[in-house]
Amino acid sequence: MSPPGRDDPAAALNQVLSEVIDAILDVRQAHRRVPDTQALHAELDQLLADLRTWARLLADQDQALGVSPLASMASAASRTPLNPWHGAASDQEVRRIVGEHLDRLGHQLSAALAEQHDDRTRAALTEVEQGILAHRRALSDL
After folding, report:
1. Cα angle 15-59-139, degrees, rounded to a multiple of 5
2. Whose CA is closest to 60, among 108, 127, 135?
3. Is the torsion defined by CA of 122, 128, 132, 133 positive or negative?
4. Which residue, of 5, 23, 87, 96, is most buried by count of CB atoms within 10 Å of its CB?
5. Max Cα-Cα span within the chain
6. pLDDT per residue over 42-54, tens digit each?
7. What's the whole-model pTM score?
8. Which domains occur in the chain, in start order?
9. How many Cβ atoms from other residues are within 10 Å of residue 140's Cβ?
């Protein structure tokens, strides 16, 4: 399997997958900064679980399209979090940073959906997009 080219639906799918992996790393860091007893911690728990599920869903979709997601993106170990978490962070700061990451992911999803022709891929991306919107709302309601 060769890596997808530019302006390729598979490349767009892999960009979303890469962004989901970045979000997992960032949310994991945010999760560690919020006490277990807070509603924000519970929301981050659910978001982290959903991000992992979506990463598997998108990787499976890549495989179904005959594309290896690992051929075109950095490994989790070689990634640098977009927002390094130094020291304590307030709940407001955690919500802001995680919300910004979800917004970036939402933009990637919109771009990827516009490039897709395969109904199963569109359905997978739409599922992730709807989940991202729900988590974005949940964060702003806290």
Report:
1. 65
2. 127
3. positive
4. 23
5. 47
6. 999 999 999 999 9
7. 0.86
8. 9-71+90-141 (1.20.1260.10)
9. 9
